[in-house]
Amino acid sequence: MTDAHPSFLQPDAAGIQTAAEVLARGALLAFPSETVYGLGANAEDVDAVNRIYALKGRPSTHPVIVHVSPDSDPGYWVHDLPHAARLLIDAFWPGPLTLILKRAAHIPDVVSGGQDSVGLRCPSHPVAQALLRAFDALRDGHGGVAGPSANRFGHVSPTTAQHVFDEFGSAVQILDGGPSKVGIESTILDLSRGFPALLRPGHLTPVEIAEVLGEMPRLPDGSDASAPRASGTLKAHYATRTPLALADADTIAATAIERSDERIAIVARPSAIGDIAKLPNVAFIAAPEDPPRYAQALYGLLRELDRSEVDRILIERLPATPEWAAVNDRLGRAAAAFDDDLPVDD
Predict the structure, then answer these.
(1) What CATH code is carried by the domain that includes residue 318?
(2) Which residue, 158, 192, 196, 332, has fewest beta-carbon neighbours within 10 Å?
């Protein structure tokens, strides 16, 4: 965890109680999870949730995910909790799975971007769970926390308390829970239309979901026009401030040579790339060889590269295989942010 700082709350009993009281009085709080840090507000306080949108610079039509305690009743938040949702909750909560369900009428639509659905997740991070339990106690057992990633709209998500401070300074208090262990956002599965559909890949895979449901969820292919809007599903997303592009391993060196007048950071797995570290204009960063470690390191690496004095970031295009799907999704959206005519998301 980070050294003591006026904006940071430590994850002891006093710090967690203070954090819950921050949320209860309608203020914003950044909090840790196993995926990334969230920018939290009382999910039933319309003014507080609107402050999330304002601070992030996020369009109000983009839904936010409601985080709930392991002890709370997810049925409070939804019109109906289908059997498939109960199976997945039993199998994967607490954990990095968000379920999109029909929103209960008493839940404000500010959390769903005006839609009739709501995204629910129960994080596995022990500090997040302690916070949610403490907030539950202040809210008669219904302490949901709306919590998109704690970063400016379109920027790289934060995986440490320091990353959040780098984004917002002292504008928001931060509950410090150490580095996020998963490192990328949750898998989002839509159950609001009578069938399972993957809206965002994550640590939890479609195969794991299918093993519980007995059917493979529909996978995103750009043709599902009826899908609800969900966090992290616009074309451009997770963007660095330094221009970033993906390249096949066998063309990275050639690209670096062609751009010899630029200082280039190259991120690639050592097993997939030749000896390019000797190029005078190249800073080579060895990427992890396995998907979970790559995912955990990704956002911290992108933020570090943004602070370095490079003109361009080239990242090895990874295999188009299921185990790399979530990392490929994040890298593809980060690169797409540099197409001038594309929108960005957070």
Answers:
(1) 3.40.50.11030
(2) 332
- Domains in the chain, number: 2
The interaxial angle of helices 325-336 and 291-307, nearest 10 deg, is 20
Listed in sequence order, the DSSP H helices in 238-290 are: 249-258
For the CA atoms of 161, 165, 167, 171, the dihedral, rounded to the nearest 10 degrees, stands at 130
Q: Are residues 35 and 182 in the same domain?
A: yes
Which of 213, 236, 254 lies at the terminal end of a domain, its last residue?
Answer: 213
- pLDDT tens-digit map of 153-200: 889 999 999 999 999 999 999 999 999 999 999 999 999 999 999 999
Q: Tell me the residue ranges of DSSP E strands in the chain.
A: 8-9, 29-31, 38-42, 65-67, 97-102, 117-121, 145-146, 173-175, 187-190, 197-200, 244-247, 264-268, 282-286, 312-316
CA distances from 329 to 30, 103, 124, 174, 268 (A): 25, 27, 23, 28, 16
Indicate which CATH number applies to the domain containing 125: 3.90.870.10
Is 346 domain-assigned? Answer: no
Question: What's the rounded Cα separation, in Å, for the pair 172 and 28?
Answer: 6
Q: Residue 53 is part of which domain span?
A: 8-213
Q: Do residues 208 and 157 share a domain? A: yes
- Choose between 239 and 99: higher pLDDT: 99
Q: Which amino acid, residue 129?
A: Q
Q: Give a yes or no: residue 252 inside a domain.
A: yes
Asked whether residue 159 is assigned to any structural domain, the reply reads yes
Task: Report phi then psi at 110, rounded to 5.
Answer: -60, -30
Which residue ranges are tagged as binding site for L-threonine? 35, 67, 121, 186
Q: In what order do the strands lie in the sheet with 38-42?
A: 8-9, 173-175, 29-31, 38-42, 145-146, 65-67, 117-121, 97-102, 187-190, 197-200
Predicted TM-score (pTM) of the model is 0.93
Q: If 0-12 CB within 10 Å is exposed, 13-18 middle and 19+ buried, where does residue 12 land? A: exposed
Residues in binding site: 35, 58, 67, 121, 149, 157, 186, 200, 238
Domain end (from 190, 213, 236): 213
Which residues make Cβ contacts (< 8 Å) with residue 201, sequence separation at least 6?
A: 187, 220, 325, 326, 329
